[in-house]
Amino acid sequence: MNKIFALRHPLFLPLLCILLLSGKLYGAPQQETITLSLKEATITQFFKGIENQTTYKFFYKDSQVESAPSITVEAKNLPLEDVLKSVFEKTSLSYEITGNQIVIKERVSADKKIIKISGLVTDVKKEALPGVGVILLGTKKGVYTDDKGEFTLDVPVESSTSSINFRMIGMNDITVALDGRAFYQITMQESTNLLSDVVVTGIVDKRAESFTGSVSSISAKDILRAGNKNVFESLKNIDPSLYIMDNLQNGSNPNALPGMELRGTSSFPVDNNLGVNIKGNYGNIPNTPLFILDGFETTVERIMDMDMNRIESVTILKDASAKALYGSKAANGVVVIETKKLKGNQQRVTYTGSMDISMPDLTSYNLTNSAEKLEVERIEGVYTFPNNIEIQLEANKLYNTRKKLIEEGLDTYWLAKPLRVGVGSKHNVNIELGDSRSLKGVADFTYNTVSGVMKESFRRNISGSVNLSYRYKNVIFRNIMTAVSNFGQESPYGNFGNYARMNPYWRSNDPATGLLIRWAEPGTFTPNPMYDATIGTSITSSYLDFQNNFYVEYRPTQFIKVAGRVGVSAKRSGADEFLPSNHSKYSNSSYMQNEELKMRRGSYRLDNGKSSSFSGDVNATYTRDIDKHFISAYVGAFVSESSYAAYVNRAEGFPNNQAADITFARQYAQGTRPVGLSSLNRELSFLSTVNYSYDNRYLVDATYRLSASSLYGKDNRWAPGWSLGIGWNVHNERFFMNSNLIKQLKFRGSVGVTGNQNFNTSYAVGTYQYFTQYNYNGLTGSYLFNLPNPQLKWEQKKDYNVGVDATIGEFRLKADYYDSYTENMVTDVSVSTTTGFNMVKDNLGLVRNRGIEINANINLWQKESGFMNIYGSIASNTNRIVRLSESMRTYNAIQEKEAADKGNNKPVLKYNDGMSMNSIWAVRSLGIDPMNGQEIYLKQDGSRTYVYDPLDLVVVGDDRAKARGHFGFTTEYKGFGFSTTFRYSVGGQAYNQTLVDRVENINIIDNVDKRVLSGRWQTPGQIASFKRLGMFQYEGDPLARQEMTRPTSRFVQDVNELTWGTASLYYDFPKSIIDNWRVQRMRLSLYMDDILKISSIVTERGLNYPFARTVSCSLSITF
To answer: Worst-scoring range by mean pLDDT, 330-339, 381-390, 455-464, 585-594?
Structure first.
């Protein structure tokens, strides 16, 4: 930034005020004055005296100062440089000041002459790089670049023809041969695929080269290259081990939260709402990973709503060695997200704006047009009544009326009626307040509106954060304050599935006036779903979230760090749902004819929730290199409290559409009253972890965490978690040291135990409820709502993991094999009814997950002008139930009873020993009998029958793919960049519910799939995939019937999919252009998400809300 621009910049004066208030500013060494009195003191006492009065810090080895003589100092307001000279001239030591570092050196004798070289290190955009390691190869001499990217290095004469190496996390190493120059201009390029030097765990950072755990470290650039919608959509294109499921019901609904699991399903579904369906409550979902944001727990909703431009890195902790730091909460894996740190000492303002265009994707729908639907009805016999001539005449009239309209061109495409091209926008302003070495700050503001493809649906987020850091000598204070306001609205046009059911020969608008009509067909009570949007229907949700995280760090020595953290958060949420009295929900004739029901028309649901949390910890870290030994030890104590309370009120009976407030209701909804739930969880834990390496070859990681939680029964309060990992850096062995091909070869393995707390507080503790309808002598009684279990403990997951990390030339490989066992799962257990209950929560069952994960990439070429990188991955998981609890057998019996219901047309969920938790259960089918169009079933004993028997249910598939992964490439050349990613999954199965609902179990009143005409049996001898249309009789059954098709293997199909997940194109404007605009950096980007899906199964997707393809254009400018 040039000086003229800095003075004219609008932030200059406010920044100057901040700097003046911040206290002592850094200056040159001679500007620091010292007042110090020491007598016969050690030189380390002298160092501490200087550090206590200045912002400088001494760096030295113990061996350097052990033989230093005692010193006496008398200084009063003397310049620092004078005091240093007077002391060191009496010793065999010398010093060098670099930035705020004073590096102690051995004095070079006259016969050991040195050459002083200096230089400047920048990135490709000519921005200074502070903190770059500058090492003289073949020696232990090295320095770091200062805040301006400058360095000075003393080189002995005998090493003047050697080379120096430049290293920095996230940048490619550079080695430069010394050629006699005194000044070197170095340009470093950002690494596109090198493993990070540090593993971010959210508690204590670990050196990557000596770490034995299995993690995925994802940079901010990788996140943005993989998509522009939200973090989860990007992660879906990066790491297949974190399986983020497509929501087949809610599609691209901006207000729907994603479901996910890491390394397979390990917990049975549990009822956490206790009968209360709380909107917006996403807590306690059994298989969801733990999310950590800047060191503190957070929610899936918070992560989905956060601005992606704030993210510095995402780290996925997978095995025990990585996730055991989080003990009894880490069984499902841990996702650690770090926001951008304070960098440099310059003023910067960055604006990022984007426009997002979402287009509905209806390619999975294959519905009949008006002529085809009329023909289906004719074949089905809708217009045939041979035994009643009067009804037959009316049916003929209706048929001819509809046929005439079709011939006139009536063919309403109902699917398009509630849809639009959604146009959203995102704006982010990031202000860096620099220019002070003591005080740094960043302010960040975001406005983001996501417009859904259904009309009037959207999600709006307004957020702001302030990140301040202040250094006083060897103490650092840091505070991050964030506030988020969210408002979401569902489409008043209702459920998208209602439009898929509408017949194309019905009208949505009056042909004469063009206005919406109330009923889709004259003379019927078939409601037009579009009408609901015109009468004041409203479904909204909102929340306000505040979080403040405070950190303090103290370094008494260069090896020890003591730190403390405190985080507080508060959230208020609400949801409103108003359905007016003339909503299509009340179109049933009974609401028109019954006076009492008329008065009950119109409904309002009001949800209110509040949550808060407090967490804090104190910890100490010791890190030191001693010859060939490296040790890093961490100990900490943690305390936390979280609470949640939610309330639901339902009311009915609203006089008109304008009375859209719950206070206008006639009464509570019939059979309801105000309900709610609450939870309170407190936890205390202690953690210790040690990382040791010998000669950077042999590695050991050990972690132990002991946690006590109010979630557990009183007899099992404490839950220990632990891990042990070992590793071998083969590339550092002597026989590999001279290999130019193999740059890294690490073998690692780990074992450990972690836990899962995703269950409700009331499972272990007895909960009472009041008798609200009765009292005795004016007193209100209470009763035990659930049976407590004081023995209840945490779910335990034991993980085994072996892996290899290899870098061979420009090819990099990371492979893992894991085998995990989850036991003590929280499930229902049958108890004697004499207790007053038939179930109690207990720990039973054992589930096994095992699989492989392979990630590979190769850098095809890399020059100063650009690079090209190809990458790919594969992940496979096998899930098996090893041991089932008796309660789950009771659950299976309930499911079998449901399967016996002739009205059931969906597979039931059952669990059996030796089977997957994701098994598909159905009766085996031999297909459609060509002679009569009936389905032939295969019984358990191998015999054939036309009669469906639920006792013949067997496992016919697994809805999890045998393998999934991604592949793609990223490239950059002279400022232009392009990246694209494809996802694939193979070997899974799915029950094609579309064929059941739209082809066989058709409600002839609704629209149907085209395959009704082409695939159903019609004549004897026909080979058909689907049974006959119309009524028919089963053998031995005197009644003609069209029995509902029930779950059979005929509808279980293999699922192999290829998805073009994302593509992004960007251009970085050259400095030769933007310097004229007083701009530091300018990037224009274009994104496309969910571009194409090719699948072996044809099924409707987005049943309640359609899927969408998104195109985004983004502009980022830094001033």
So the answer is: 585-594
Q: Are 155 and 122 in contact (CB under 8 A)?
A: no
Q: Quick check: 668 and 603 in contact, CB under 8 A?
A: no
Whether residue 631 contacts residue 622, with contact meaning beta carbons closer than 8 Å, is answered with yes
Distance between CA atoms of residues 891 and 219, nearest Å: 45
Eight-state DSSP code of residue 220: H
The pLDDT tens digits for 7-34 are 344 433 333 333 333 333 333 444 578 8
Q: pLDDT by residue (tens digit) across 71-116?
A: 888 888 888 888 888 888 878 788 888 777 888 887 755 445 677 8
How far apart are the C-alpha atoms of 1077 and 158, rounded to whole Å?
A: 49
Kindly give the interhelix angle for 389-407 and 370-380, rounded to the nearest 10 degrees.
160
CB contact at 8 A, 136 and 153: yes
Give the span between the Cα atoms of 736 and 742, in whole angstroms.
8
| 848-867 exposure pattern, b = at least 16 Cβ within 10 A, e = fewer | bbbbbbbbbbbbeebeeebb
Average pLDDT of the residues in 876-885: 88
Closest C-alpha among 850, 827, 847 to residue 839: 827
Helices marked H in 195-297 — which ranges? 220-225, 231-235
Name residue 919's beta-bridge partners. 958
Opening angle at CA 227, ends 226 and 231, nearest 5: 95
Q: What is the CA radius of gyration of the chain?
A: 35
Check if the beta carbon of residue 1115 is closer than 8 Å to that of residue 354: yes
What number of residues does the chain have? 1119
Q: Which residues contact 858 (CB under 8 A, 6 or more apart)?
A: 810, 811, 812, 869, 870, 871
DSSP 71-133: EEEEEEEEEHHHHHHHHHTTSSEEEEEETTEEEEEEPPPTTS-EEEEEEEEEETT--B-TT-E
Q: In what order do the strands lie in the sheet with 925-928?
A: 925-928, 935-938, 944-945
Contact 419, 446 (CB under 8 A): no
* Pairwise CA distance, residues 177 & 1027, whole Å: 79
**CB 915: neighbour CB atoms within 10 A?**
16
797 SS3 class: strand
Owner of token pair 């910049």: 9
Give me the amino acid identity at 929. Answer: D
The answer to whether residues 223 and 314 touch, using CB atoms and an 8 Å cutoff, is yes
3-state secondary structure at position 1010: coil
Beta strands in 113-270 (DSSP E): 114-123, 133-136, 142-144, 150-156, 163-167, 174-177, 183-188, 198-199, 206-207, 215-219, 242-244, 260-262
CA distances from 167 to 135, 170, 586 (A): 8, 9, 70
More confident residue, 158 or 551: 551
Answer whether 865's CB lies under 8 Å from 899's CB.
Answer: no
- Which stretches within 1026-1096 are classed as H helix? 1071-1074
Give the contacts of 439 (CB within 8 A, at least 6 positions apart): 18, 19, 22, 23, 433, 468, 469, 470, 471
Q: Are strands 290-293 and 334-339 parallel, antiparallel or unpaired?
A: parallel
Mean of per-residue pLDDT scores for the chain: 85
Tracing tokens 């790089």 back to the chain, one arrives at 129
Per the CB < 8 A criterion, the answer to whether 70 and 101 are in contact is: no
Residue 1005's region, left for phi above 0, alpha for psi from -120 to 50, else beta, is: alpha
98: how many CB neighbours lie within 10 A of its CB? 16
163-167 vs 174-177, strand pairing mode: antiparallel
Burial class of residue 1013 in the structure, from the number of CB atoms within 10 Å of its CB (0-12 exposed, 13-18 middle, 19+ buried): middle
Task: Please tell me whether residue 533 adopts helix, strand or coil conformation.
Answer: helix
**1032-1036-1040 Cα angle (round to 5):** 25
Place of tokens 């417009």: 451
Longest dimension (CA), the chain: 124
Q: Coil, strand or helix: which one is 1000?
A: helix
